[in-house]
């Protein structure tokens, strides 16, 4: 094997380690699999990643991933723009939508505050949230972060930040299993948690 080939293989293995939960051994196994048995799949993977990098951006209003200026939910005029639900990730929007329990709009933080790592606020899109709330007045802000240590820390940061805004602030009821991440909670339990949300302010 020439040095050049070895370099390309190492480069691929290293690049694969960018994926979550992929260490050196898994990355090597993936690289071998792609090159040995999945060459067509690998071509599609390259094309799909390139297209996504070019086309996928953040929605101007809610910060979720979308391909236009606004996502389908923010562009939907039939939704109740006076109620804004704050969630951690796009998958949480999907969970809420399939539970059919929120007809307002969303804001997606794209992260969470980690209380054991100095609660770095850069991990969530707070500036964009503040701008959103300054531009469009809402009557109720529903904090729908996960029921985990990180979700609780994030909810705390949000409740502190949002006290100055003239809106009612609520959080999902704790009807969910402890350590519950919204994406793993069934639709019925999720809907219940939304209906029974409690006032923070
Ligand atoms: Zn949006």
TrEMBL record:
Zinc finger feature spans (C4-type):
59-74
GO biological process, any: DNA recombination
Q: Where would I find the Toprim domain in this sequence?
A: 82-177
On whether Transmembrane is a keyword of this UniProt record, the answer is no
| InterPro entries with a match to the protein in the record | DNA_Rcmb_RecR, Rcmb_RecR, Rcmb_RecR_Znf, TOPRIM_dom, TOPRIM_RecR
- Tell me where on the tree of life, at the top rank, the source sits: Bacteria
Enumerate the Gene3D superfamilies for this protein: 3.40.1360.10, 6.10.250.240, RecR Domain 1 (1.10.8.420)
Protein keywords: DNA damage, DNA recombination, DNA repair, Metal-binding, Zinc, Zinc-finger
Protein function: May play a role in DNA repair. It seems to be involved in an RecBC-independent recombinational process of DNA repair. It may act with RecF and RecO.
Family to which this protein belongs: Belongs to the RecR family.
NCBIfam families found in the cross-reference section? recR
**The protein's name in its UniProt record:** Recombination protein RecR
Name its species.
Answer: Snodgrassella alvi
Q: What lineage is this protein's organism placed in? A: Bacteria, Pseudomonadati, Pseudomonadota, Betaproteobacteria, Neisseriales
């Amino acid at each position: 094997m020439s040095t050049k080939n070895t370099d390309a293989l190492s480069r691929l293995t290293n690049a694969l380690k960018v994926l979550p939960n992929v260490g050196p051994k898994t990355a090597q196994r993936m690289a071998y699999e792609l090159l040995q048995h999945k060459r067509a799949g690998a071509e599609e993977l390259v094309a799909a990643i390139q297209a996504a990098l070019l086309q996928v951006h953040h929605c101007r209003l809610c910060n979720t991933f979308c391909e236009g200026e606004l996502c389908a939910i923010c562009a939907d005029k039939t939704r109740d723009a006076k109620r804004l639900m704050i969630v951690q990730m796009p998958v949480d929007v999907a969970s809420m939508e399939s539970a059919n329990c929120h007809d307002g709009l969303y804001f997606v933080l794209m992260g969470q505050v980690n209380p054991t790592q100095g609660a770095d606020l850069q991990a969530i899109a707070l500036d964009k949230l503040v701008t959103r709330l300054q531009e469009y007045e809402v009557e109720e802000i529903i904090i729908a972060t996960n029921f985990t240590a990180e979700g609780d820390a994030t909810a705390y940061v949000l409740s502190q930040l949002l006290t100055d805004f003239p809106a009612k602030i609520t959080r999902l009821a704790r009807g969910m299993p402890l350590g519950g991440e919204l994406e793993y909670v069934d639709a019925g339990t999720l809907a219940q948690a939304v209906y029974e949300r409690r006032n923070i302010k």
